[in-house]
Structure formats: structure tokens, C-alpha cells
User: Which sequence fits this backbone?
């Protein structure tokens, strides 16, 4: 099906930038006609491997059937405001589309899910990411992946969990984060400057010291891990400020910017929902970053 990108951009823009019910419910259907449906041709999908003891300690592996390994590994952490979301949404191509995109581009895709707030609070979401990365490092070779070439990517709350995983060294199994690079799609990295939404409150709690400790900006910059920061043109203002803050801190430390993508024509959800569609503008830039670092 042909994609009219200017027409889609106009429809996405009309949804606004705030995370209203209209935007949350209206974004996915715009991309739906352009997505693959199961079963995915030439992809081996292994569902619901367990990486821990909780019911939500589950991950899916997407392995290209015809590619020769060992391949780079793309680990994706979904969003959901710390309180919801899943690696696969029933009756929907989301979030399958992200590891499927990875597999279609010569990688092994891994899709993880994690525990929700308020059952858990910071940094337990990032602990789940660490346990999933440990599983990948120990097991991904069986699926054709290279445990020494792992790219970690997270969107929204998933980006926040990924960021804290990078910075909290006690979450690193074996004493190393084990990453070849990290990609943040519109996360929250500086809770001292965040908008203090109820969803953030559910994960951070009431202790001001926790909000400060959960701020990961300086830790990301000091980690030295190769970094790509992506933000959508129609993201809420707070997410745009968060990205700008992180970019500025990185530049102050390193004398240059990290890799940066402004996803023109996309909002907070379509930033990742459009991956593995004919709109390759973001995906091509992500692939260039991955090729550079794997």
C-alpha cells in the first residue's frame, strides 16, 4: 500500500501534541494499514521467554530466517507511563513492529516487558531491563545474535528505564552494562525538571531524594556509551525539553552532540509505531547509528 507521508503528517499534527485520549487512541490506526500481519514471513519468532520470576519478566525474540550470524542485537523496551503497556498489544502490530523492523534490517530483535508501578518503584523497572540484558548476553547466541553487539532502545517510560539501567552500575550483571550503544526515544532523564505527572509520581513516590537520584543525565554523559537521542516533532513540550537537556549536557562534556533525530511529522506514539512501514526517515538514521557502533 502506498504511503502519502504529507497527508499522514497532517493527520498526526491534527491530533495535537498532548497525550490526550484522542492522540492515544488515534495514532495507531493511522499507521495500521502499512504494517505486516502475522505470521511474519522469513522471521522466526520465539515468544514469552522468561528472564526472571515475575509474570511480566517475559521477552520475545525475532530472528531473521535467512541471515547468517552472529548478528547485532536490538533490545526494545516499550513505553506506557510506567503503569501499562506490553511487548505485544493484542490484535495489533504494536509493539511487534519494532523488533520485526530490526529483524528485517539484519539484526536479532528482542522485545521485553517489565513490572509496572505502583507495584514497583524506581529503580526496579531498570532492574528488569538489566535482568533482560543479562538473559540476552547469556542466551542470544542460540538465536543467531552476537552478545557483544547489543543495542538497547527504549521509548517513553521504556527510555527512562533504559537510561537508569545505563547509569545504575549495581544493575550491571558481570560489572558491565554490556551495550554497544543506547537509543532513547522521547524518555524522561531529568526528574528534577520533569512535569511531575501522576504516572511519574506512581513510579518515583514521594521522597524528593529519589527524584534526584533517578535523574540520569550526568550518568549517561559520563558512561561513555554511544548515544542516539530521538524526539518527535509533535512530542509534548516536556519530552522535547528533556531531550534538549540531555543533548546540552552531552555537548558540554564531550564538545559535540550525540546522534540526534528530530522525527519530523511524528508524535510521541508514532515515533516508534511507524517503524517497519514505508516511512524510513527515522529508521534509516537509526540504522546508520547501529552500523557505526556494531
Assistant:
Amino acid at each position: 500500500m502506498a504511503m502519502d507521508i504529507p497527508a499522514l503528517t497532517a493527520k498526526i499534527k491534527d491530533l495535537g501534541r498532548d497525550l490526550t485520549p484522542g492522540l492515544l487512541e488515534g495514532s495507531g490506526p493511522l499507521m495500521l494499514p502499512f504494517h505486516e500481519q502475522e505470521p511474519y514471513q522469513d522471521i522466526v519468532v520465539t515468544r514469552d521467554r522468561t528472564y526472571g520470576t515475575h509474570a511480566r519478566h517475559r521477552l520475545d525474540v525475532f530472528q531473521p530466517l535467512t541471515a547468517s550470524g552472529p548478528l547485532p542485537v536490538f533490545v526494545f523496551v516499550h513505553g506506557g507511563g510506567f503503569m501499562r503497556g506490553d511487548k505485544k498489544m493484542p490484535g495489533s502490530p504494536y509493539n511487534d513492529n519494532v523488533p520485526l523492523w530490526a529483524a528485517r534490517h539484519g539484526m536479532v530483535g528482542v522485545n521485553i516487558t517489565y513490572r509496572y508501578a505502583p507495584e514497583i518503584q524506581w529503580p526496579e523497572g531498570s532492574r528488569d531491563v538489566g535482568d533482560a540484558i543479562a538473559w540476552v548476553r547469556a542466551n542470544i547466541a542460540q538465536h543467531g545474535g552476537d552478545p557483544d553487539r547489543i543495542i538497547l532502545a527504549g521509548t517513553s517510560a521504556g527510555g527512562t528505564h533504559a537510561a537508569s539501567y545505563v547509569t545504575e552500575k549495581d544493575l550491571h550483571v558481570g560489572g558491565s552494562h554490556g551495550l554497544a550503544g543506547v537509543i532513547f526515544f522521547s524518555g524522561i532523564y531529568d526528574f528534577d525538571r520533569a512535569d511531575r505527572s501522576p504516572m511519574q509520581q506512581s513510579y518515583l513516590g514521594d521522597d524528593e531524594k529519589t527524584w534526584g537520584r533517578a535523574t540520569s543525565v550526568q550518568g549517561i554523559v559520563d558512561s561513555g556509551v554511544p548515544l542516539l537521542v530521538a524526539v518527535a516533532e509533535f512530542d509534548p513540550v516536556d519530552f522535547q525539553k528533556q531531550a534538549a537537556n540531555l543533548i546540552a549536557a552531552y555537548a558540554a562534556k564531550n564538545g559535540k552532540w550525540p546522534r540526534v533525530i528530530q522525527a519530523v511529522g511524528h508524535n510521541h506514539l508514532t515515533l516508534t509505531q511507524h517503524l517497519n512501514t514505508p516511512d524510513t526517515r527515522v529508521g534509516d538514521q537509526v540504522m546508520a547509528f547501529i552500523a557505526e557502533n556494531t
Q: What stands out?
A: The radius of gyration is 18 Å. The beta strands are 43-50, 58-64, 71-77, 108-112, 145-155, 181-185, 227-234, 259-267. Residues 42-293 form a domain with the Rossmann fold fold (CATH 3.40.50.1820). The chain has one domain: 42-293.
